[in-house]
């Protein structure tokens, strides 16, 4: 077995941005999502991965919010590239999906880049941004974002606070802690928007 102890405690770079959309836009997004509950589908994982590693519901069409979220993500690109030391690359695509984690929802350790048969040349995910929003007061517990160190043994846990965003290189291992939402109401879910800058 490979000794990965020298990687323990070494974390990929990341940034947390508070108040990313602003309260008015965040509330409008929440209202939109609650009205679209019927369009959410069970989440899937890439081919070859265990489907039991993820439990959530997903919406891939954010209607009037798609352009806003993509533009705001693109605006952060230079700052994030500098912070992560990745160098600049033109964005060829911005992928967006909205995820609802209800009671028992989670996503085990994974990366956001595609490999093997799932890889598409020229469409590599480079930077991941995850935006959090929810009803207030919060009606769920858990659901923290966990960024794993390079050895996969330690984590930095980040609360999914309303109107906050976490950004990191898409190759970084991360997970979503299990959510507890006793009432089970869709409106009480842990909502997040996953945004990928590709190039």
Overview features:
199 residues; 5-stranded antiparallel sheet; Jelly Rolls; single chain; alpha+beta; 7-stranded antiparallel sheet
- Order of SSEs: EHEEEHEEEEEEEEEE
Spans where pLDDT lies below 50 across 5 or more residues: none
Report the sheet with the most strands, covering strand number, pairing sense and barrel closure: 7 strands, antiparallel
Question: What name does the CATH topology carry?
Answer: Jelly Rolls
Text of the CATH class? Mainly Beta
CATH architecture: Sandwich
Instruction: Count the beta strands.
Output: 14
What is the SS-derived class?
alpha+beta
Q: How many domains comprise the coordinates?
A: 1
Gyration radius (Cα, Å) is: 16 Å
CATH superfamily: q2cbj1_9rhob like domain
What does the average pLDDT come to? 93
Q: What is the straight-line distance between the termini?
A: 35 Å
Classify the helix fraction into a percent range. Answer: 10-25%
Kindly describe this structure.
There is one protein chain. With 199 residues, the protein is an alpha+beta fold. The protein has a single domain, classed as Jelly Rolls, CATH 2.60.120.620. Helix content is 16%, strand content 32%. The protein is built from two helices and 14 strands, in the order βαβββαββββββββββ. The strands form three sheets. A seven-stranded antiparallel sheet has the order 1-11-7-14-5-4-2. The chain is globular. The mean pLDDT is 93.
């Amino acid at each position: 077995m490979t000794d990965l102890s020298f990687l323990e405690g070494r974390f990929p770079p990341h940034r947390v941005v508070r108040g990313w959309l602003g309260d008015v836009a965040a509330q409008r997004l929440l209202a939109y999502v609650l009205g679209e509950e019927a369009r959410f589908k069970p989440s899937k994982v890439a081919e070859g991965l265990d489907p039991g590693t993820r439990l959530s519901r997903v919406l891939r069409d954010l209607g009037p919010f798609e352009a806003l979220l993509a533009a705001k993500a693109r605006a952060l690109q230079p700052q994030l590239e500098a912070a992560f030391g990745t160098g600049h690359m033109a964005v060829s695509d911005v992928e967006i999906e909205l995820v609802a984690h209800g009671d028992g929802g989670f996503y085990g350790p994974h990366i956001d880049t595609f490999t093997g048969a799932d890889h598409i040349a020229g469409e590599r995910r480079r930077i991941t941004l995850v935006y959090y929003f929810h009803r207030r007061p919060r009606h769920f517990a858990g659901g923290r974002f966990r960024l794993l160190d390079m050895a996969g043994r330690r984590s930095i846990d980040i609360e999914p606070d309303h109107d906050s965003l976490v950004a990191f290189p898409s190759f970084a291992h991360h997970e979503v802690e299990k959510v507890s939402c006793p009432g089970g109401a869709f409106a009480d879910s842990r909502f997040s928007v996953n945004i990928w800058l590709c190039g």
